[in-house]
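COURSE: Structural Biology Practicum
ASSIGNMENT: Worksheet 4, Part C
STUDENT ID: 0417
INSTRUCTIONS: Below are two proteins. For each, the amino acid sequence is given first, followed by its structure token string. Answer the questions at the end about the second protein only.

PROTEIN I
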Amino acid sequence: MDTSSLVSYVLTRGELMRRVVAHWRAGAFTLLSSPATRAELADVLARPSIRQLAVAPLDELVQGLERFTEHVPGVLHLAGACRDAKDDKFLACAVEGRAHYLISSDADLLDMGRYQDVAIVNPGQFLLALELYPMEARAMAARFGRDVLVDIQATVPLEPDTAARVTEALKMLSSSAPSVLVIR
């Protein structure tokens, strides 16, 4: 998760990020951090303007990130991976930690859609991906209509196994479409 998403959470406690943080705290996914990503977050959250506007406890979030994230060493450097060099640290953390997803609210990252094996998603897309991740193709086909799955496939960068199950669910829906009998 990048700094923009976490700062959004502490400033607004918006519904999507509140749900993402709740899933993290419940252990539904592992959050990765590196020395560089933790340092940037600490620097941003220390700004007086952020401290004044925060609606979520800042120290609790920083301590949670220190204690309850999987720390990657931060030895991988990806110079020029993103058009905004300040975002390279998040890509490096995700790649080094072998993450499936990088959650971001930053257009420079989101426009990439994917970097190596990492799907770059906004918080809403991540919540959908988190829901789809454990589902078998048959369950996806039963829960979502064909149009919804086509839309998901077109707009949500999914990790490869989930994307394959969405494709399989679409095939199931296509093969189970009722036949039309034409009488002349």
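PROTEIN II
(use this one for the questions)
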Amino acid sequence: MSRRRPIFALLLGAALLFGPGAVAEPLAADAALSAASRAGRSGKKNLLVVFHASWCGWCRKLETVLSTPEAKEVLDRHFEKVGLTVLERGEKQALENEGAEDLLDSLAGRDAGLPFTAVLDRKSRLPIATSNTGGPGTNVGFPSKGEEVDHFVGMLRKGAPRMTEAEAEVVRAAFRAAQVSALRR
């Protein structure tokens, strides 16, 4: 079992134990962050935390961009990624990571909007940078404009000082490709 993917292994183990129809209860936010912190120590990687919800179309779009093969390769090289589910409604509240909404509130304020992204120090879990551009209420969410993409990439570079400009350009290109794809629809 790989030390890099303890969360995946935990979920896979639960699925095997309880059968194919079983849905594992989401990890509490603190447990998810602890697992990512442990995994990030060996590579000295900080945490890239993405707050999202199942109803949030912009959240799905951000995940699509961040999981393109090129962007994913860059992000995996520099970060341990943690997805935290918040602000669900009705029966979907069971999808939430316990404690994630309090963490979101402490990082972004009550009305941050989704998706919200933060880079946290792997040791202290203190914020290095967030998707707020100037304080509460300034979340870029899904970066669609050039200055929003620049802010997002700048946030990544603060959390990964060894990220090269060429790697940063790979992430920018993934956002540009998403914008072009949206225009074609």
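ANSWER KEY EXCERPT:
Q1: Residues 26-184 form a domain with the Glutaredoxin fold (CATH 3.40.30.10).
Q2: Strands lie at 46-52, 79-85, 116-120, 127-130.
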